Amino acid sequence: MNINEILNKLGIEPDNSGTSTGSKWLASKGAVISSSSPVNGQVIASLQSTDAAGYEKVMEQASQAFLHWRKVPAPKRGEMVRQFGDALREHKDALGALVSFEMGKSLQEGMGEVQEMIDICDFAVGLSRQLYGLTMHSERPGHRMYEQWHPLGVVGIISAFNFPVAVWAWNTALAWVCGNVCVWKPSSKTPLCAIACQHIVAKVLKANDLPEGISNLVTGNACGTLINEDKRIPLISFTGSTRVGKVVSATVAGRFGRSILELGGNNAIVISASADLEMSVIGAVFGAVGTAGQRCTSTRRLIIHESVYDDFTAKLAKAYGQIKIGDPLDENNHMGPLIDQGAVEDYLNAIEQVKQQGGRFLVEGGVVNGPGFESGCYVKPCIAEVKNHYAIVQEETFAPVLYVMKYKDIAEAIAMQNDVPQGLSSAIMTLNLREAEQFLSAAGSDCGIANVNIGTSGAEIGGAFGGEKETGGGRESGSDAWKGYMRRQTNTINYSNTLPLAQGIKFDL
């Protein structure tokens, strides 16, 4: 499929509104956003972003829809999500290709992202019959205590460019089965993916005669501030940089709202002396090069035992020599472009900082030029030998720059892994059971995700996803992450003919 065929299959016009409640696309006077593909640098389509008046219309529709949606039984809400998952299956090829073309990740990763949406829908359908509360024994005779979970209301979702559809689905599928409605502000770098998703879900809402305001879309950076400050939105899920996440957290907390924060990662793989080196190379290369290093779980650091350091880095350099860079829609290529020129500048700055701070490159980087690379967004993945304390190593650079360093024993490796401000994903490659268990212990990795013999990248939806420290502490997707989208209520029922008080307090009249 060419890009015009892709857009046609997904219902996207050359000029679109960026504001909708379900299938209703609202006129707006916001700034025009042009979506340019980093694949070829060409404008794909434009849209009119949301102004304050359009935002208000969306919030009115969302608030009204919640009054209906919260009363629909959870398994019935799950049925709507099941149908949405089936609709995604029908559109997987087109939506996956659009993700690849608009964002720049490989076609396999674009398809994988849509599959992740399908998977979370399947998970949410089962969850819709498992929103369990607890029953507790009361100290008072003739009393019963239990807890139940209720929906919060309107959930605001602010997503990033690197996963333009999956992260929205993680939040939305759970929020929907929990009885909430959603207002989504996607990245202005990948708005067409969001418009495509809205077209898909709108048909499901219409087929089930459900309120349009269950799924809402607003676009433009100004809407981020409106959502964060809106007291009608009790929960904000924000995915993005630590810098912006701090602002979101403070703003939302200032109005006593809740936030789910998925922020920066500075993820390391420990390569043990006991590691399977061939398998470790695959995990390290995909983690560092997948999505051109633009995942929050991308592998940024390799902490390698000194006894295997030379052997492993030689294998790694050889593997880097086999990486094919180019059009991500060509399945023979491993790596596509960075998202835009700003990302390229950050990449080049990181390379310069490595040199200034004392590092040396085992595999040199640089911008790729020539036919097929006219967008200027294609870069070479590089490997730098550094010390963990270098200032640039302590930062997250959203690009394929991989740092390698040595360690002597497992205690030192764990300390190095933990000695960064971020705490998202981590891994150890080892066949030594003691090392593995130590890495996973309370004295081991301080990250929200800790793996053994797999890399840092590629989380499954069954487990809760998120990290600690400057990663923000949020949890999305699997396990009991659904509780973040609901409010807990404790209930006590007195079925006796007296009114005993707790703690044995007497209050006689």
Automatic annotation (TrEMBL):
Domain Aldehyde dehydrogenase residue range list: 25-490
Classification lineage: Bacteria, Pseudomonadati, Bacteroidota, Sphingobacteriia, Sphingobacteriales
Listed InterPro entries: Ald_DH/histidinol_DH, Ald_DH_C, Ald_DH_CS_GLU, Ald_DH_N, Aldehyde_DH_dom, ALDH7A1-like
Pfam families: Aldedh
Family label: Belongs to the aldehyde dehydrogenase family.
Keywords: NAD, Oxidoreductase
Enzyme nomenclature, EC number: 1.2.1.3
Protein name as annotated: aldehyde dehydrogenase (NAD(+))
Keyword Magnesium: no
Assembly behavior: Homotetramer.
Gene Ontology MF terms: aldehyde dehydrogenase (NAD+) activity
Active site: E262
